[in-house]
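Hey,
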Amino acid sequence: MPELVICSLGPLSIEYQGSALNVDTRKASALLIYLAIEAQPRSRDAIATLLWPEYDQTRARAALRRTLSVLHKALGGHYLSIERERLALEGPTPPWVDALEFRRLLALRHDHPHAEKEVCPACLEPLKQAVALYRDDFLSGFTLRDSETFEEWQLGQRQALRDELAIALAALTRCYILVGELTEAIVVGRRWLALDPLNEQANRFLMRLYDWTGQRAAALRQYRECAQTLDRELGTPPLAVTTRLYEAIRAHRAPGPPEAVADPNATVTSHAEQSIERDAAPTQPAQASHPTGVSAPLIGRDAERAAALGAFEASAHAAQVLVIEGEAGIGKTRLADELIAHARQRGAVVGVARCYQGESTLAYTAIVALLRSVMGNDPATRLHDLPDIWLSEASRLAPELTAVRAAIPAPAPLDTPGAQSRFFAGLRETLIAACATGTPPGLLLVDDAQWADEASLDALTYLARRLEWQPICLLLTWRSDAVDTRHRLWRLLAETQRQGGATHISLRRLGEDDVRTWLRHDLGAAHEQRAPELAARLYQETEGLPFFIAQYVMALTSGAVSAAGETWVAPVGVHDLLQSRLSALSETAWQALTTAATLGRSFDLDTVREVSGRSEEETTAALDELLAHGLIREAPDTRQDEISYDFTHDKLRALVYDETSLARKRLLHRRAAEALVGASRRQRQGAERAAQIAQHYAAAGDNASAAEQHTIAGGRARELYAHVDAIWHFQRALTLGYPDVAQLHEAIGDAYTLQGDYTQALASYSEAASHAHTEALARVLHRIGGVHGRRGEWAAAQGYFQGAVDALHAATEAETPSAQGELARIHADWSLTARHLDEPEQARIHAERALELATTAADLHALAQAHNILGALANSQGEPEAALRHLEESLALAERLGDAATRAAALNNLALALKGMGQIDRALPLAEAALALSVTQGDRHHEAALHNNVADLLHESGHVEDAMAHIKQAVSIYAEIGVEAGAVQPGIWKMVDW
C-alpha cells in the first residue's frame, strides 16, 4: 500500500500513511498535486510564477520556501526532493495518483495486438478500472482565486482528462458489445453521451443498443433527442448516417446485435463496428464543365513548356510518359494544348481523350475516345497494315472498324484464357499502327485522368508498360487535389520514372509579374497607364490561378467587370469551377467547411471542432477529406503542437460562406466568439485576439459583446502605439453601443493628439466632456488645454486648466489621492503655459504646487512630471544645478515606472539643460534617445520638435549635413500636423520643451 495517496479526479483528497494530510494552505495542496501530475522535476522559478503570479520573483520564491517548509513537515520529511533550483516528488515508495493510474490503465490497450481504435476482450478489465477511477472532473471544486496561472494549468489538465475519458467510454462501450454485455454497454454509453451531448456517434451506439435490447421506443426517442440537441446548439440536422439508422429501426429493418466473442484476440471491427458506423456514401457530384473555351496565353510557363517539348522530342527514340498535374484551373489543359499544337505542326498523329466527372462508371470511355481520335476520318488508310486479329480485338470498343476490310473475324469471348491479354494487345497494336501513319513521334493525350474509369486505367497501365521503343508520347494530365498519393496513377508514374521513360511536370500558381505580362498581352495599350495597379488587383483577386486570370481578363475586355470598379463580381466561370470542387463533399466535411469559412481564411483543428460541435474523430476525418479534395491546405507556419489550415483560395472561402444560411452564420459566429474567448483565457491572450472575437460577436448580432471586445482591442492597439487601429476600434465600439461613451471619446482624442490631428482631437474631447462626470470631466478639460498648448494657444490652454481645477474641486472626491494626482498634472502643465505667457512667478507657483500635490498623493507619475517641469523652469531661469537635479529625478522616476512619454520629456529637457551648459557631447545622445522614444510612441509633434533639437545639437558639434537631414524631417512632419483649412498654424513650430 503506498504511503502517499492523491485522489484528484473529483474533490481533492490527499492521504499520508493512512490519514488525511494536514496542511494549512491551499497553495501547499496545489504544489503537491502539481508535482504529482507533472511527475518530473520542475524549476523553482516556474513553480513560484505558477502559484504566485502577482508577486515579483523575490517575493514569490520566499512564499514558495514557506510553503515547502509546511508541506515537507506534513510529509514527515519524505517525498519532496528539494534542490537549489529544482523540486520533485520522489519518495521511498512511489505515490499513488488516480489521474496517473487512469492514464496507465488506458495505455494498457496499446499493449494488445490491434489498432488503436479497436478493442478486444482483454481490454475490458483495464477500461472498467480506468472509468471507475474517474469520479468527477479533475480537482472539482478546488480553486486558487489569486493564481490565474495555476487555474489555467488546472483547466488544461481537466480538459485533457475529459477527452481521455471520452475515448475510454467509447472503447468500453465497444468492448461490452464485443462480449455481449449490452445492458452494461447502455450504462456506459449514457455516460459517454452525457460527457458530450453533441456526439452523434454516441447517439448512434445508444440507438443500436436500445434496439438490440428490445427498447425500440427508447431508440427512436434517442434519435429525436439527438436531433433537438443539434438543432438547438448547432442549427444543423443529424448526419445522414444517423437518420438512416433511425429509419431502419423504425421500419424494423435494422440488423441485430453481433455475436458475442470470448477470444482475447477478437476485435470489434468487422461486424459490430461496421454495422453501427457505416458512413453515408457521398452523393454523386455534379459534372463540372471542362475549363475550355478561354484562349489564354501561355504566360509564366517557359520552363514547363520546355520540359514538355523535350519529353515529346525524346519519344521519337523511345516511348515516353509525360504527366502534367496540378490543382483545378492551374493550366494543365492549356499546356497540353500547346504540346498538341506543336505535334500537329510537326505532322504527328494526335489522339485526344478528355475524361469527365460523372462518367467514371462507363467502361473504356477514355480508350474509345483515343481510338476514334487517332483513326480520324479515314481509318482504312491509317490501319491499312494492321493484322486482322488486332483489328478484330479493337472492334470490341470501336465497331466501325469492322467496315475497314471484309471478313474480319469476330473476337473471341473475353472469358477464355488469354482473351484479356489479347484484347489489350489489340488496343496497343491499333494505337501504334494509327500513330505510325504520321511523322513520328505520335502523341496520345488523356486529359483529366483523375476521372477515367477503372477499365480505361487498366488499359492505359498496360499500354504504358508495353510501348517500349515505339515513337509515342503518352501524355496524362490530372488534378492533384483529386488524386491522392495512393492512387494508381501516381504508382504508374513512379514505375515509369524508375525505368527512365517518364517526365513529371507539377504546375504552380503564377506570380504578380506573370499577371502583369498577361495583362499587357491581352489588354494592350487600353490599360497601359494603370497596368501595375490593375495587375496587383488582378493578382489579389485570382491568387495567381491561370483559369481565374483568364476569366477576369475576358470579363475586363467585355466590360462585364470595370477596371475602376470598387468591387469585382466573380465571373460565372470562376463561380462554376469553385462550385464543382464543392459538389463531392460528404455532409460532415461540408459542415466543417462552413465552420472554417466562418472562422476566416486560416483556422485550426481545435477551433473547428469546438465551433462545429463535432467530435475530434469526426472533425479530423472531415479535414482530411477537405485536404484530399484540395479545398484546404496545411498552413506553412504550422507548429508541431498546433495544426492550422488555410483555404487554397479565398474565393473558395467566400463562396462557402455566402452559401451558408444567415441563421447558421450567426450561430457559428457566436460559437466562434465563445471558443476564442475560452482559448484566450487559457492562453492569456485576450487582448491579442479581441479584434477577431469582436468581429464574430458583431456577425452573431451580439453588439454589446462586440463593443466590449472592440474596446479591449483598441486598448491593446493603444499600448502598441497603433493609433489608427486604436481609433477604428474605439469608434466601432461606439457605433455598437458601448455604454461608457466618455471613456471612448477621450481615448480617441488621445490617439488623435499623438497623431497631430488637433482638430479631430478637440472634437473628440468635447464629445467626451459632454458625457463625463466629476473627476473624468476634469481630466478631459485638462487634455483639451494640453492640445491648445501644443498649438501655441497659451491663453486658451490656461482657461481650460482653470476649468479642470474647478471641476475637481467641485467633485465630492476631490481629496482622494487620484484627484490630487490629477491636480498635480494640471498644475505642471499650467506652469509651462504660464512660462510661455511670460508669467515666471505664476509658473513657479504652479510647479511647486504640482510637486506638493504629487508628494501628498504618492503619485509617482505626477511626481515625475512635477520634477520635469521644475527642471525646465529652472533651466529657463538660469539655474543649471537645480535644473539637473529635478530633471535627473524625473528621469529616474520615469524609468522606474516604464513611462515612455515622461521619460522622453525628461531626456529632452535634460539635453536642453546640458546644451545651455555647453556640454553638447552629453546632451546629444540624450536628445537622440528622446527622439527614438517619441518615434516609438507615434507622437508626431514631439518627434518634430526633437528633430529640431537634435539638429541644433548636431550643428553646434560641427555635423552640418546630419543637422540638415533632421531639419528636413522636422519640416516634413510640421507640414502634416495641426493643419486647418490648408494652412499650418505657426504656434506648433514653437514647441521646444514640454
